[in-house]
Amino acid sequence: MFYSATYTKNNFSFFVYAIFATVIFFFLVGMSPSQKIIINGKVIDEKGKPINAATVTLEKTKIAISTNKEGEFELISEYENPKLVVTAIGFESAKKSITKDDIKDSVATITITLKEEVTVAEEVILTGYTTKRKEMKRSVTSVSSKLEGRLSGVSVTSATSETKIRGAASISDKTISEDKSFSKEDDVKTENNSEKQTRLLTAGEVNDFKKWKMWEDYNESDFKMHSEKWQLFATGRYSVQLQNKELKAVVGQKIYLISESGDTLWRAVSDNTGKAELWNGFSASIKKTNLFIAVDKEKQTFAAIPFPQGINHIVIDHPCTVSNKVEIAFLVDATGSMQDEISYLKEELEDILSKVSSKDKSLDLHTGAVFYRDKGDDYVTKKQAFTQGIATTVDFISHQFAAGGGDYPEALKDGLQEAVEALQWSFDARTRIIFLLMDAPPHDNAKLEMVKLISEAAAKGIRIVPVACSGTDKETEFIMRSIALATDGTYLFLTDDSGIGDSHIKPTTDEFTVELLNDLLQRIIEQMCYVNSCETKTGLPEPVSTFPNPEKIKVFPNPTKGNVSLETNKELKEIAVADFTGKILLHRDAQTAKGSYSFDLSQFPAGTYFIKYVTNENRSGAEKVLLIR
Question: What pLDDT shows up at residue 517?
Answer without folding.
Answer: 96
